[in-house]
Amino acid sequence: MPNRDGLTLGYRFMWRLNWLLLHVAGPAEQSENRDPRRRMERERAERVARYRAEGAEH
């Protein structure tokens, strides 16, 4: 199945590793706008949306 989200294998691997490390050894639960895991998720969603928007232009 082709990668349709525009994220490289290395990026996805490192993203998941960082997310898991933050889940296990990161800071205590924080508000939505201060939680580093939620920030990572928002940044990834923005990246995917940008990639898909660029694909729709072509």
UniProtKB/TrEMBL annotation:
<feature type="compositionally biased region" description="Basic and acidic residues">
    <location>
        <begin position="31"/>
        <end position="58"/>
    </location>
</feature>
<feature type="region of interest" description="Disordered">
    <location>
        <begin position="28"/>
        <end position="58"/>
    </location>
</feature>
<protein>
    <submittedName>
        <fullName>Uncharacterized protein</fullName>
    </submittedName>
</protein>
